[in-house]
Amino acid sequence: MRTGSERGSRHKRIAAAIAALAAIVLVGTACGSNGGATSAAANPDHLDSSKPFGGDPAEEGTPKPGGTLIVGMYTEARSFDPVIGSNLMASAVYDSLLKMDSKGNPQPYLAQSMDTPDGGKTWVMKLRPGVTFQDGTPFNADAVIFNVKRQMDTPAALGKLYTEPIQTMTATDPLTITFVLKRPTATFPTSFALPFSSGNLGSIASPTAVQKEGADYGRNPVGAGPFQFVDWIPNNKIDVKRFDNYWDKGKPYLDAIQFRPISDTDARYASVQNGDVDLDIGGFFSELRQASMNKDLVTYYGPGGDGQYLYYNLTKKPFDDKSVRQALIMAIDPKALNATQYNNVGLLTTTPFAPDSQYFSQAAADAYPKYDPAKAKQLIDAYKAGGGNPDFTYNTGNSPDDHQLGQFLQAQWAAIGVNVKLQFDDISTFIGPIIQGTQFGTATWISGPYENPFPFMTNQFHTGGINNYGKYSNPQVDAALDEAAASTNPATQIAAYKKAQELITQDLPVVWLSQAAKAAIARPNVKGVSRYLSSELFWGGTWKS
């Protein structure tokens, strides 16, 4: 994939086929994020998607330096170590090597360019000069290679998957890295532009700090981003302060940011509404809908693919039986789901892609089981008659939204003869031992909207994918996803993702609920918001009026 970067005279432009691949759009956002943006003020039945990627600097005036921003987060951080990820606060400490534009294409950020001279087998990355880490360590090619190698050598690293194509990486000069891959891989630059919380190769830690802190590095991070880590009191707050030697001179504008984990959705929204926090990073339709209709708040949100769904634990009974998986889907009334869980503004879904995405497969959507409680009960009765026990545990977090959804699904499934035990855990227990440890029956999850179909489809549905918590495996799906990741032909990619969707729909490894509702909700004096649709924010340009 082409980065769209500033081109060095020594580097050729990317082959035409890869340039064409730059037309890839944000999955599911397409027209919905810009041309199809809607304002809730104009139509209160819709969510405000008029500012999907942040504010317009031309409309916000001259940035004012100083002040502390208080941010309410829907989740606690797991670690600041890039090999562990799962931290929406880390983008304050780190700047990524590349950054996605509104079309999902990687662009320069800490790297000045990333080009291929041979159609995707060799990639040459040029770094920005004059950058230092917050501990004074030079930011150079050796530091990038050190970090990529950590991802490569750490078995559980979130970014390990993205290192698989790498055959060699060489510092050809202090600011240049040459990656030689095992095969042409058009999507390779995307790995350096992904959100920190999803795992990436672009968040670069100071090698000096990593070697000094060892296993404690995740609680003592040092990056080259706009803010320097100060302290972290678990389940209370994380503080960062302005990095005075930041490479983008004049930034950051803020003196400090304090991140506060507020897992309760109602409490988090009330906090931004009454001014206890300046910015709310949330993941639920309830607060997004309220914010969309509140003229005293600014909503940053864009719809897209993936979203809220349930993992089936395919390693446990009764989920090893497709008839049970099908019955549980057919038992859910979509109208009742939307009314009770999403205030009738939910964008219900049946595939990983939104209908306006070029990757969306109508065939997959048509094949997804339809609401039919009578048929669902027949399938469950047949399973019981064969000696099976369809009862299971439903696992989720402990927010009011989680309780409400769990109780709704429990009632839907009880109507077809399935008794479901509800288990609610705090978010760290739920994500750690329950989800990542595959100790669940079914489990709720929210993913996306993602900036590019690669690597998220691979992470979620490929055998061994880092987010494939239900342990789904289909060699045909693996082959389709591998083909999409490697191809330089947009038509080939589209066909491969459609094929993967159709195969996934045949297998039913997850229960689709709705597209994601991840938003940033701000007080009107918060300016310079810049974000990915998946909630990752870039803090260097944020300021308070």
From TrEMBL:
Which residue spans adopt a coiled-coil conformation according to this UniProt entry?
A: none
InterPro entries from the xrefs? Peptide/Ni-bd (IPR030678), SBP_5 (IPR039424), SBP_5_dom (IPR000914)
> Residues in domain Solute-binding protein family?
106-467
Q: Which domain of life is it from?
A: Bacteria
Keyword flag Nucleotide-binding: no
User: Region entry Disordered: which residue ranges?
Assistant: 37-68
Write down a Pfam family by its short name. Answer: SBP_bac_5
* Keywords recorded for this protein, A-Z: Signal, Transport
Family statement: Belongs to the bacterial solute-binding protein 5 family.
| Full protein name | ABC transporter substrate-binding protein
Source organism of this protein record: Pseudonocardia benzenivorans
Taxonomy, top ranks, is: Bacteria, Bacillati, Actinomycetota, Actinomycetes, Pseudonocardiales
